[in-house]
Each structure stands twice: as structure tokens, then as C-alpha cells.
Specification:
The chain is built from 14 helices and 27 strands. It has about 500 residues and is of the alpha+beta class. Strand 1 and strand 2 form a beta hairpin. The radius of gyration is 26 Å and the shape is globular. The model has no long low-confidence stretch (mean pLDDT about 95). The protein binds one RNA strand of 77 nucleotides through helix 1, strand 13, strand 16, helix 10 and strand 19.
RNA sequence: CGGGAUAUAGCGUAGCCCGGUAUCGCGCCUGUUUUGGGUACAGGAGGUCGCAAGUUCGAAUCUUGCUAUCCCGACCA
């Protein structure tokens, strides 16, 4: 039984995804139910995401801080809607000590004498503990705004998990801001949505639709939830980021008030926004092919992999000298380079290996090439045998060409994703077409909706499709709801979703 | 949490119905050979058969319980 190939996307999309995640060394299942181990190569990609996002957060005036993983139940309960929304998936700490089990030598049990007076909730999100803290930080309008972000792990006890897409514990960042006015908080909410969209499109090469969630899909405790929605290669939608306008809900729950210039006390306005390791899933499912991962250069831990080809030690010396000097030159212009000089593997093996791991550019060079002053360049964004996948370049000019090639790959991956989304987005005007397309050609469906949660719920029950968002750029047009026939003024975005 | 399936060496697997301590491939180690798309040959190491009980002279195989994973539902980012 050969382990060479991946399952194909066409035959079994889930198997393809699961295998790819494991085989590309991104992550694996752990001994803990629903929790994953993120492996070094996968974590390196996450770190690239973190860097890019963190830079953008700082550039928009935010600072990082850290709040505890545990939330006393009484705090957690304070904002009722939020608490209700998460109650079903909370891990709860009840004891702080273990002891030897008297009935079972060598085993441990929670010490009954160490039961906590008040249970601690493992954070599914941190609004409660953060707003409880903000209460102490805010007295005057001079204390506002508070613009914080934290990088953290959270726990949501899910029934069914999948590597990166839905795990019991996951990594994310959560921004929590407090403002003096509604306008400012709303501006912050929209600004961070734009930051996410910019990151997704320019760094992840992932086209996204910016929109507003319907009431059903809104974050518990928010007045309005904004999101970016992306389309995966199997035609399912994936929510890639959310930004919430919290109104004064948490300020009221935690009694966070400030004195304005006029001396009047008013509740603070809030926002929160986050993206998670789920983005890794989006990255994989949006771009990769049956040969493995395809990474956009701006996120690739290695942008270029170099593979030397030689027979004898003498040849090795010749090739390695040249290839090392090229490597140094590339590093000088901040290209992330991996030189795979492992003698125990053949070049062919390395080609397959780095292809599986999605490195954007492969440079291969043997003695012949050194003699001829050339180097082979292979692009991961093009299929094997496709025009332009392999080219022979002059060593003399390769250094200056690589940045342009990487840029071109970044753009071509994005264009390809845009093309896919365009081809898999359809306007539908009746329920029959809607249902038919969901099965025959899954993707984004733009359809009129009467605006009621009841209709959305019924469509969901009957078709499994949900309203991903009401696109921000939706054009006003007269129409009738595909389900109820009632009047509607704009189309909303439907899809089956992850 | 419901329905179905699976769990055997690092990975992928055969054996299970019809009980007798385990098959094959990849990988790993040694040597030779090869190296421009997953080299070839020879030799070698590696297994509490998911865990725990039970039935039996004897359990990977039969029974029960537990755990984990996958698929389908419900729930959710």
C-alpha cells in the first residue's frame, strides 16, 4: 500500500483535508479528546499569520495584554445573553487538588476537600473577565478609549471536532475595546473588520465577503456582528473572522461608566473581534490541490526551497558552493529560504516532499547548471506540466527575479481563488433553483430574504444552508423572498457552511 | 448526545466469521548501488494486536464495559 498520493478532493474532500493536514506536518490529533497538536511547520504558518495581524493591530493603535484563562462563574453569568450562548460548551473547574485514590492504589482522584467555593469557567471567550477589569480602569472620558488585544487559547466543548476547523481548545486573538461613543465603537468594529479583510485578501490570498450576520448567527451579547466569509473549494462557506459591536451590553452588565466632559455618567460602548487557528483550515481548503498544500508566499515559512543535485563529493562541493552563495544573497533581501541538503534523500523525493508542504518556489541546481550558469525554477501555484511551471533562469539574474516571482505567485493564487468564487456564486430568484443549486453546484447563493429569523430557520432546516451574511456592498433592489414571497430590498449570501 | 463504521510495528494494512501468540507494503538500521519527479538489490531491527475485565487448556479472533478516531445527524467559530 503506497502512501505516496493524497486522496483526491473530488473523491473524498474530507479525507483529502485530513490527510493533507497530517502529511504536510501541520497538525495531528492528541491524546486529549478534540484537541490537536500543532506541529512546528503548522505553527510556523500560524506565527506568520500572528505577525501580520499583530502588526496591523498595533498600526491601528492597539496594545497587547493578557487576562486569565479562568473566569469565576459569577462573572461569567453577568452578561446573560453571552452566558446563555456559551453555557452548553463550557469546561468547568471544580477542584484545585488531587489526592491518591484510597480504593485504587497508584490512581488519583480530585480531593473532595479541595472543592472550589466558586467554580471557574475555562474561558470560551474573555468578555466577562475583561469587562470586569475595565470597570476598574474607567472613570472619566480621559480613560477612553481602551484598545486591547490578547493572544490566547480558549476552550469550547464541541461535539464534533476537525483539525483546525473546530477543536475543543483553539488559539486565537481577541480584541476588546471600550469607547466613549456609539459612533467611535461602531467605527472600531468596522475598522477591524477591514483589517481582517485586508489580511485575508493580501496576505492569505483569500477573497472574502464582508457582511453583517443575521440575528440567528449573531454573537451572543452583541448588538451587531460583522464577519468575513470565504468560499472553500468544496463549495462550502467558512467564517474567517468576526467583529462585534457590543453596544453597552457589557458595560451595563459590569457597570462600566465614565464621566463625560459635562460631568454626566454614561455607560461605555464596546467592541470585540477575533480570528483563530481556524484560518489555517481556510488557508488549506481555499488553495491547496491534490499534490498538497499551496501556500501564498507572504505566509510561507519557507518561500523558496533549494535542492542541490550531485553524484560525487566533488560535484557536491561545486554545487553546494554555488547554491550557498545564492542562498545568502536571497536571505540578504529577506527571502525565507530552506536549503534541503539532506544527503539521505534523492532529489525526486524532496520535490514531492516540498510540494506537499506547499513551498511557493523550488530552485534545483546540479553541476550541469553550475557550468551553464543556470538554475531551474519551479512554481507551486502551477500544476505539474502546466505552461510556466518549470523555467530555466540565469544564475546571474535569479536574485532579482525571485521577489517578482513570489509576488506573481501571491497574486495568481488570489486571482485563482477569486475566479473560483465568481464561478461558484449565483443569483437565485426562486426556492427550486436554490435547492437545486445547493446540491448540483454548491457555492455562494445570492437570494432575496424577507428578513425574518423564522424564514432563515426554515430554509436552514430544509436545505442546511444558512445566511452567511448580509453583504455590506449589497445593492438595493426590489425583490421577493425566495421562501415566503414577501418583499425584500437586497440579496443576502446563503451557503452551506463549516 | 443519537445512528453507522473503525482501532493490529512510526504509517498504511491482511488475519477475526470457523480461537492455537501475527501477513504484506512503506518507513527505519547495515552494506552496495543510485541521485534532474518519491532509485535498486541484499541483509536486519521493530508488535502490551486501543484499554480493562470475562469465557477457554489456549484470545488479535468470542462476550461485556471503557476510550479514541472517521462518516451521517443535532450543536457550534
Amino acid at each position: 500500500m503506497s502512501q505516496k498520493g493524497l486522496p483526491s478532493r473530488k473523491d473524498d474532500y474530507s479525507a483529502w483535508y485530513n490527510e493533507l493536514v497530517k502529511r504536510a506536518d501541520l497538525a495531528e490529533h492528541s491524546a486529549v479528546k478534540g484537541c490537536m497538536v500543532i506541529k512546528p511547520y503548522g505553527y510556523a504558518i500560524w506565527e506568520m499569520m500572528q505577525q501580520e495581524l499583530d502588526r496591523r493591530f498595533k498600526a491601528t493603535g492597539h496594545q497587547n495584554a493578557y487576562f486569565p484563562i479562568f473566569i469565576p462563574k459569577s462573572l461569567f453569568e453577568a452578561e446573560e445573553k453571552n452566558a446563555e450562548g456559551f453555557a452548553k460548551e463550557c469546561a468547568v473547574v471544580t477542584h484545585y487538588r488531587l489526592k491518591s485514590d484510597p480504593d485504587n492504589p497508584g490512581k488519583l482522584i480530585p480531593d473532595p476537600n479541595s472543592r472550589l467555593e466558586e467554580e471557574l469557567i475555562v474561558r470560551p471567550t474573555s468578555e466577562a473577565v475583561i469587562w470586569n477589569t475595565y470597570k476598574n480602569w474607567v472613570q472619566s472620558y480621559r480613560d477612553l478609549p481602551i484598545l486591547l488585544n490578547q493572544w490566547a487559547n480558549v476552550v469550547r466543548w464541541e461535539m464534533r471536532t476537525r483539525l483546525f476547523l473546530r477543536t475543543t481548545e483553539f488559539l486565537w486573538q481577541e480584541g476588546h475595546t471600550a469607547h466613549a461613543t456609539l459612533e467611535e465603537a461602531m467605527h472600531e468594529t468596522r475598522q477591524m473588520l477591514s483589517v481582517y479583510a485586508d489580511f485575508a485578501e493580501n496576505i492569505m490570498a483569500l477573497p472574502v465577503v464582508k457582511g453583517i450576520k443575521s440575528e440567528n448567527e449573531r454573537f451572543a451579547g452583541a448588538e451587531e456582528t460583522f464577519c468575513i466569509e470565504a468560499l472553500m473549494q468544496d463549495g462550502k462557506a467558512l467564517q474567517a473572522g468576526t467583529s462585534h459591536f457590543l453596544g453597552q451590553n457589557f458595560a451595563k452588565a459590569f457597570d462600566v461608566k465614565f464621566a463625560g466632559k459635562d460631568g454626566k455618567l454614561e455607560y461605555v460602548w464596546g467592541t470585540s473581534w477575533g480570528v483563530s487557528t481556524r484560518l489555517m483550515g481556510a488557508l488549506i481548503m481555499a488553495h491547496s490541490d491534490d499534490n498538497g498544500l499551496i501556500l501564498p508566499p507572504r505566509l510561507a515559512p519557507y518561500q523558496v526551497v533549494m535542492i542541490p543535485i550531485y553524484k560525487s563529493d566533488e560535484q557536491r562541493a561545486v554545487v553546494m558552493e554555488k547554491i550557498n552563495s545564492i542562498k545568502k544573497e536571497l536571505e540578504k533581501i529577506n527571502i525565507r529560504v530552506k536549503l534541503d541538503d539532506d544527503d539521505s534523500q534523492t532529489p525526486g523525493y524532496k520535490y514531492a516532499e516540498w510540494e506537499l508542504k506547499g513551498v511557493p518556489v523550488r530552485l534545483a541546481m546540479g553541476v550541469r547548471d553550475v557550468e551553464n550558469g543556470v538554475i531551474e525554477v519551479v512554481r507551486r501555484d502551477k500544476a505539474r506540466g502546466e505552461e510556466g511551471q518549470k523555467t530555466i533562469e540565469q544564475i546571474a539574474t535569479i536574485i532579482e527575479k525571485i521577489p517578482a516571482i513570489l509576488q506573481d505567485i501571491q497574486e495568481s493564487i488570489y486571482r485563482k481563488a477569486i475566479k473560483f468564487r465568481t464561478e461558484n456564486t449565483a443569483k437565485v430568484d426562486n426556492y427550486e433553483d436554490f435547492k437545486r443549486l445547493l446540491d448540483e453546484k454548491p457555492g455562494f447563493l445570492l437570494a432575496h430574504w424577507d428578513g425574518t429569523p423564522e424564514t432563515e430557520e426554515k430554509i436552514k432546516d430544509e436545505t442546511k444552508a444558512t445566511i452567511r451574511c448580509i453583504p455590506l456592498d449589497a445593492t438595493e433592489e426590489e425583490g421577493t423572498c425566495i421562501y415566503s414571497g414577501k418583499p425584500s430590498t437586497k440579496r443576502v449570501l446563503f451557503a452551506r457552511a463549516y
